[in-house]
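Ligand-bound model needed. heme C.
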Amino acid sequence: MSDKKKRRLSYGFTLLILPAALVTLSAAIGADAATSPRQGEAFFDDRVLPALAENGCALCHGQNYVRPRVLEYRELLPFLSMGSGPENNVLITKMANLRSIRADRPTHPGGQRCKSIDAEPCKTFRLWWEIEFGEPSRPSAGDK
Ligand code: HEC
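Prediction:
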C-alpha cells in the first residue's frame, strides 16, 4: 500500500472514531453531571456573585491587575473544580485557609475570607460545587 493510501486510511479511521468517542464521552459526562452547565452559571449569577460582593472580593479582584477576575464565572470555576468535593477544593481550602503551613501565612494572598467552611462565602461555594459536580440531592419527580 502506498504511503498516501495509508495516510488516507488512517484519516478515514479517525473520522469514524472521533464522533463515536465524542458521543460516548458526552453520555458519560451527562450521566454524572447533576445539572447542566447553564444551571451552574445561573447559580453563579444569582447566588455566588452577591456573596463575593458582600465579602469585598471585588476590592482586589475587580481591578485588572489581581487575577483571577473572580467576578467572571469562567475564571473562578477552575478553582472550584480542582479537588474532590464541596469541602475539598482549591476555592474552599484557600478561602477558609485550611491548608496553610502557618496560620499567619494564608495560602490566599488576599487572606482568609471565610471564618470556617460554614461561613459565607464558603457556604455558598459549597452549594455551588453541588450544582456543578454533585449528585442531585433530591430525586426529581420522575426518579422514584
Ligand atoms: C486584599 C485583597 C484581596 C481580597 C479582598 C481577595 N483577594 Fe483573592 N487574591 C488576592 C491576591 C493578591 C491574589 C494573588 C494574585 C496572583 O497570584 O497574581 C489572590 C488570589 C486569588 C485566587 C487564586 C489563588 C491561587 O492560588 O492562584 C483566588 C481563587 C482568589 N484570590 C479568590 C478570592 C475570592 C473568592 C475573594 C473573596 C471571597 C478574594 N479572593 C478576596 C487578593 C485578594
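The mean pLDDT is 83.
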